[in-house]
Amino acid sequence: MSKIYIILLLILVIVLFVSFKNQQVKPVQGSAASYKKITAQEAMNLMQSGQKLTIVDVRTPSEYESGHIQGAINVPNESIATSVVSALPDLDATILVYCRSGARSAQAAKKLLAIGYTNVTDFGGIINWPYEVVR
């Protein structure tokens, strides 16, 4: 009888191990992109360089309307899930992300990288943006 308990215990341990292994988050296959954070000054330098890039404000639409960076598009952080964002169809585009304080921009940048975007940079919050905004 004790041999049966030992065998059942081993089977249970194996099943739990396999189940746990399958639930772990796996990195995006083939994605070499990593999270990058820059300053407002570095972001401004990129914007003025003439390089083609997309500026993404990940705040709510009402926050965006209250004042945003020239040329930014509004893609709320909450709308970024697990698939390509319709407003950002090019996975290889240079994307600069910001929010109000820097918390949501970090979350959004990491989510975009996990989806498969390859060139995403977080430049923090608009509260640290010393330049003009569109109102």
From TrEMBL:
InterPro entries per the UniProt record, alphabetical: Rhodanese-like_dom (IPR001763), Rhodanese-like_dom_sf (IPR036873), Thiosulfate_ST/Rhodanese-like (IPR052367)
A Pfam family this chain is assigned to: Rhodanese
Ranges where the Rhodanese domain occurs: 49-135
Domain of life: Bacteria
PANTHER family per the UniProt record, alphabetical: RHODANESE-LIKE DOMAIN-CONTAINING PROTEIN 15, CHLOROPLASTIC
Name of the protein in question: Rhodanese-like protein
Source organism of the structure: Sphaerochaeta globosa (strain ATCC BAA-1886 / DSM 22777 / Buddy) (Spirochaeta sp. (strain Buddy))
